[in-house]
Amino acid sequence: MKKLLFLFSCLALSMAFSQNFNQEKMNEFMNVLEQHQKFMGSMAITQNGKMVYERAVGFADAENQKKNTTDTRFRIGSITKTFTATLVMKAVEENKLNLSDRLSLFYPEIKNAEKITIEQLLNHRSGIYNITDLPDYLSWNQNAMTNQEMVAKIKSSGTDFEPGTKFSYSNSGYILLGYILEKVYKKSYAEILEQKITKPLGLKNTYYGGKINLQKMEAFSYTLETPLMKSEETDLSIPAAAGAMISTSADLLKFIQDLFNHKIISEKSLSQMITMTDNYGFGIFRVPFYNTSGFGHNGGIDAFTSALYYFPELKTGYVMLSNGTAFDNNQITIAAMSLATCKNIEIPNFTAANVDPATLQKYAGTYSSTQFPIKIEVREKNGQIFAQATGQGEFPLQAKSENTFTFDTAGIQLDFDSDKKTMKLLQGGMEILFTKE
């Protein structure tokens, strides 16, 4: 999962901020999400290496009413890539690999293997097709596969472009990096991870995952409907080094702090990891925050979503691990980082307004914009309106007023003017005007 989040802080940000994190305000924010079943999971924030806030809400096992706690372990999806890239840099330091090594040394059967370097696999410039984009992916992602079977899948998927010519996010490249690590160390990825990172750092809740096990305090993931709908489980042999890890908020914050404090790899290696090409380094991307930047990665697998960021100048770490969301998780990040930098926040309001069905019917129709290449179809059904963009699924809209509607999961707001036959879409700082056809 890749999404560059833009965070905003106070206009006058002091780098020497107080550690008086407003826990009461953050609790109020999280309480509203929990009460309205908008978010399940764990989030935490550190300043100067100390935990200043940690909170868990919702259920790890809804069927048995088992609550999430701050010790609950979640699938972290593509945050795994940051660990994999760190292990590759460790292998470079130990003269097991060179960034200039060609894929053909390990998997000559992959198209363009003689041109593709380890570095290009790390920064998604290999051109290898992303197998999770295959049309039939969801028909086989729950079945265990061997390394050989996955390599065959990657081989048959082909390539999208010549190596090094552009950026295109590819889980396939990181799956191959994990296999390459296994070849050079002659150990499993799980063993390498334990030996090089988790055991030295004391990360007792971080490991290469398997089938979800409640006895190990692992959470299931859910679609937040009524009732909650448990998600299917991807077999973790599929994402492997691209997304198979499990962890907790506290462990992930310690990992990223220790990474930036050069306790895992050298300062030189870290510098290479955070050197951006097309806004991506090695298993890490830049997170802009007012006049500074953080670094980290997002993740998504099944109904799990995650984010892990570290802001070196602020000495602030942030993590969010979710096993179910019907909210724009970026808003949680913004709230936490705003409170960490002495900025006030607004508490979400999920109270729905009552709008007459006749008024809703006036909004129904097809809307297009000269600013946007897709159309949006708006429908009224049983006293509620729904929207659907070209090529995407339908989503319900909640009335905030007679003419303002929101879809909190994606942070979307639609403002209608039936007299002018227009609809204004607001999302992530964008404002796009649509006209009814």
List keywords for this structure.
6-stranded antiparallel sheet, hydrolase, globular, alpha+beta, 9-stranded antiparallel sheet, Beta-lactamase, 437 residues, Lipocalin, 2 domains, 25% helix, signal
Give the secondary structure arrangement, pairings included:
Layout: H1 23-35, E1 39-47, E2 50-57, E3 59-61, E4 66-67, E5 74-75, H2 80-93, H3 118-122, H4 147-157, H5 171-185, H6 189-201, E6 207-208, E7 222-223, E8 229-230, E9 245-247, H7 249-260, H8 267-273, E10 285-289, E11 292-301, E12 304-311, E13 316-325, H9 329-340, H10 357-363, E14 365-368, E15 376-381, E16 384-389, E17 395-396, E18 398-399, E19 404-407, E20 412-417, E21 422-427, E22 430-436
Antiparallel strand pairs: 1-2, 1-13, 3-4, 5-9, 6-9, 7-8, 10-11, 11-12, 12-13, 14-15, 14-22, 15-16, 16-17, 18-19, 19-20, 20-21, 21-22
Quick summary of this structure?
With 437 residues, the chain is α+β, with helices and mostly antiparallel strands. The chain has ten helices and 22 strands.
Protein architecture, described:
The strands form five sheets. This protein has a nine-stranded antiparallel sheet with strand order 17-16-15-14-22-21-20-19-18, covered by helices on one side. It has a six-stranded antiparallel sheet with strand order 2-1-13-12-11-10, with helices on both faces. The protein has 437 residues and is α+β, with helices and mostly antiparallel strands. It has two domains: 350 residues, Beta-lactamase (3-Layer(aba) Sandwich); 80 residues, Lipocalin (Beta Barrel), CATH 2.40.128. The chain is globular, with a radius of gyration of 23 Å. The two termini are 35 Å apart. The N terminus is likely disordered. The protein is built from ten helices and 22 strands. Strand 21 and strand 22 form a beta hairpin.
